[in-house]
Amino acid sequence: RGVGAREGVIEAYETITGEARKARSEAAFHDVLIEEMCTPGEELIVGAFNEPQLGPVVMCGLGGVFVEVLRDVAFRVAPITARDAREMWTGLVGAPILRGARGRPPLDTDALESLLLRIGGAGGLLAIAGDNFSELDLNPVFLYPRGLRVVDARLILRPAGSAGTSNRRQEYPPDKENLAGVMRAIFDPSSIAVIGASPEAHKLGFRIVKNLVDFGFQGKVYPVHPSASEIYGVAAYPSLSEIPGPVDRAIVAVSAAATPKVMMDCAEKGIVAAQIYTAGFGELSEHGAFLERQLVVSAGGRVRIVGPNCYGTYAPASRITMVPGASPEPGPIGFISQSGGLTLDAVRRGGEMGLRYRKAISIGNSVDLGASDFLWDFAQDDEVKLIGMYLEAARDERRLAESLREIGPRKPVVILKGGQTRTGSRAAASHTGAVASDSLVWRGLFHQTGVSAVESVEEFFDTMLAFQTLPLSAGPRVALIGPGGGASVLASDAAERAGLEVPLFEPVTVQALAALGLPPGTSLVNPLDVPASVLRLEDGRVLGQLLDVVIRDAGLDAMLVHLNTVAVFTEASGDVAANYVENMVTAILEVACVTARPLGLVFRHAGDEEQERVVRLQRKRVLAAGVPVFATLDLGLRALGHMHRYSRFRETYETHEAGVRVPRGLKPNPSP
Hints:
Elements: H1 6-23, E1 42-51, E2 55-62, H2 65-68, E3 73-77, H3 82-90, H4 95-99, H5 109-120, H6 125-129, E4 133-143, E5 148-150, E6 153-157, H7 176-187, E7 191-195, H8 204-215, E8 220-224, E9 230-231, E10 234-235, E11 249-252, H9 259-269, E12 273-276, H10 286-299, E13 304-306, E14 313-314, E15 333-337, H11 340-353, E16 357-362, H12 371-380, E17 386-391, H13 397-407, E18 413-417, H14 431-434, H15 438-449, E19 452-454, H16 457-469, E20 478-482, H17 486-497, H18 507-515, E21 528-529, H19 532-535, H20 542-550, E22 558-564, H21 565-571, H22 574-592, E23 599-604, H23 609-624, E24 629-630, H24 633-656
Helix pairs in contact: 3-5, 9-10, 11-16, 12-13, 13-15, 16-24, 17-24, 20-22, 21-22, 22-23
């Protein structure tokens, strides 16, 4: 409680000192701190901390139970922009309180944004402090209808001589000319040496050579083996030094212990880049970490290293692959993964789903070249329209953040981040540090850079497929069409979770649907539930009439059609049911040809051989026409939600920032 006049201050002082002496008779008082009593306002917490790899991070949240229990906080990597400052508080669950909920006056959020910028903006406190600060805590901050008051502040400096952020790899942008040459050697080499090649068909060294030959690599392949004269019909050499002529890149598949010597040989040969498939390094043991350091030393900066502990490169335009059965058709996706297995999954299973890649690479432990280096390359490559990444832990997180800032407004980036449930191991001395988990910080970084952060491999692939095939949605309003019931109810819930809306059809649309005179059971509202018994009318062509009506509704931004072949094969069987499905797909493709709105299809089947054969055949037709096929309604809606959020991000970025180049093929779609 506050005290008023001079007498009240004296009384309070005597009370406090008296109680202290009762507890400890020898207590002595040398100074007295008297502070002004603040008028209570809405309690917030504002803070910052120096993340070991990302650097300064800013935090904002509602105080009390909101931060301590509900973790209602937002993080952004500094420096933040005015857009970042606004989105930090508007993204809080408690944001309506700041806007003036339940009859309260709205609070001065402009003052809050100004405070955030003075701390974390360009030229703000964090920029001035640099590596000298550890954590900053403004707690509480009282926000009023006019202005704010910082009631208490705590600044923790970094101990003198302690490791700061100076050890981070912050050389961004990189040496462009040098890195461009390295990337050419990796993705479009004239020659490749396979070190650890084997004449035994079951070994990795044999499969590497075979995959390059079978995929039609037009450059020279040099298998290196101590005794074999040829491997898979290709002349082999006992050592790198005996290969005639220059070699652009090496693929290394030897034991971990042998790799440092191999790097020295590569440097002597003048090889530009080496991708090391071998595992057994820092991911396994301290000795493995030692070998990683030896790799870098042995390369001497003359050979750039991809890996180790990775699994290959896929560049269909250059006819390079690490897996048999990959599509030879190039596409718009640039793909980076720290998991070799997920890279294989993306190339094979993603390829079957319709994903097409310009470049895909497994980077493993990233002892040298990291995700930010390949992001830089993808940013320069006009043929890369979309980027997908799987990350666990980046060694160059600050450069990665800067790369994402630069590329986010220009090209969509979809990231599946592993290891987000592990709380950061930093010792948190302040309240700000205590609530700063790895997942919250990464979530903030992804939000401020426009990244579509996904939560599963299935969502990863479906979201990339949506970005690859569809125009960006100008709005969140989606129509759901298909045999529904419970599926439609669940889909409506999923749409809301994805940030989308399932609006009512316009009256003219309802009238047009009614005029079709379809049997009872057909819905006239959105979601448009159409029983299988109705869908089979006119041998399945009735779906075209329904879509032709819905596509004219001016209150919609996108459509998602759900075809459940289980229901169709219940109404008919064999070739008759297959013919129904074929006609339905034809109707969907006809509509796709005349609309600029995003249109997607969800195919469900019972899993039996007959239905799977029909779905596989029709899926190929749909994908060939540029219409995405999603695994489930939920995944399709999540993908559309990511596209809508990215469209909004780029629009708001262009509002706040000047000079953003919009890549070809990614313009917001016009009205139909």
